[in-house]
Amino acid sequence: MSALMPTEVVLRGDVRLPRIGLGVFRVPSGAATRALVRDALSLGYRHIDTARVYGNEQDVADGVRDSGLPRDHVFVTTKLWNDDHGYDAALRAFDAALARMRFDYVDLFLVHWPVPGRRKDSWRALERLRAEGRTRAIGVSNYMEHHLEKLLAHAVEPPRVNQIEASPFLQQRGVRALCARHGIVIEAYSPLTKGARLSHPEVQRVARSVEATPAQVLLRGLEHGLAALPKASHATRLTENLASHGIELGAEAMSSLDALEEGLVTGWDPRRAP
Q1: 3-state secondary structure at position 228
Q2: Residue 185 falls within a domain, yes or no?
Q3: What digits encode the pLDDT tens for the residues 171-186?
Q4: Quick one: average pLDDT of 190-208?
Q5: Which whole number is the average pLDDT over 118-125?
Q6: pLDDT over 90 (residue 246)
């Protein structure tokens, strides 16, 4: 049997990233986001992922405050949106995010999309923010191999995280191999395929064999050093996803999940982005 999945992934600099986080993409702003964050934290989540373009940064921060947990007990990520690229623009955007959230820092600040032409200047701004301690870690999102190679050619500090869509049906092996060589942790968004493959016969078979749910099996199938950001809006689903830590899969089950690759993209596809 495989070992229990670790609950944290350690980023460069000993920054500890809770392996299962809550993504709030398309969660309505206002009371719905605040309640979801509060509920997730009460159930044991310690990692919340938001972005300027989601329109709910302030509500995420309010939910963290409402939880009663100390700020340093919750790992919070937000992101630099496309029209905020450039050195000065990125610094201003970060200041605006902190003002919206009423935080002194964020744990992780990501470049949301590989916007061509201004990526180098934006990355210099993120390096400054990390050096000043205003964010504990910096990284990118939706960066494929060619984006990463260009960034690594000039970066003083390599990204610590690359947040991309990944699941047993979209394993991103080339990107993962490049990230592994440079100590970059992969965070998987849409790890549950937005529900598109929960009824897949092999996922169902493995789930029955280990007395787990299909969602837990898909999350456990990402055990190759990845973190994951499954979406959920109800306590039952939140609990189910977090409990995937305790699911044990044998070598045969892991091999069967690794064989499910089909290039399934359910959201943005950055592979052709310049």
Answers
A1: strand
A2: yes
A3: 999 999 999 999 999 9
A4: 97
A5: 96
A6: no
Helix (H) or strand (E) holding 150: helix 145-154
Q: Does 274 map to a domain? A: no
Does 1 reside within a domain?
no
State the pLDDT at residue 248.
Answer: 87
Contact 236, 107 (CB under 8 A): no
CATH code (residue 123): 3.20.20.100
Q: Select which of 45, 54, 143, 189 is catalytic.
A: 54
The pLDDT score that the predictor gives to residue 223 is 78
Indicate whether 237 belongs to any domain.
yes
Q: Provide the residue range defining the domain that includes 122.
A: 8-265
String of b and e for 196-228 (b: at least 16 CB within 10 Å)? ebbebeebeebbeebebbbbbbbbbbbbeebbb
Question: Cα-flanking dihedrals φ and ψ of residue 238, to 5°?
Answer: -60, -45
pTM, entire model? 0.95
pLDDT value, residue 4? 53
Spatial distance between the Cα atoms of 89 and 84, rounded to a whole number of angstroms: 5
Number of domains in the chain: 1
Residue 60: burial class (beta carbons within 10 Å; 0-12, 13-18, 19+)? buried
Residue identified by tokens 């029955």 is 208
Query: Annotated catalytic, 54?
Result: yes
Residue 77 sits at φ, ψ, to 5 deg, of -115, 140
10: enclosing H helix or E strand:
strand 8-11
Tell whether the model's pLDDT for residue 45 goes beyond 50: yes
143 closest CA partner among 167, 176, 118, 107? 176
Shortest CA distance to 220 belongs to which of 266, 181, 253?
253
Lookup: tokens for 210? 């280990």
**What does the alpha-carbon distance between residue 229 and residue 7 come to, in Å, rounded to a whole number?**
13
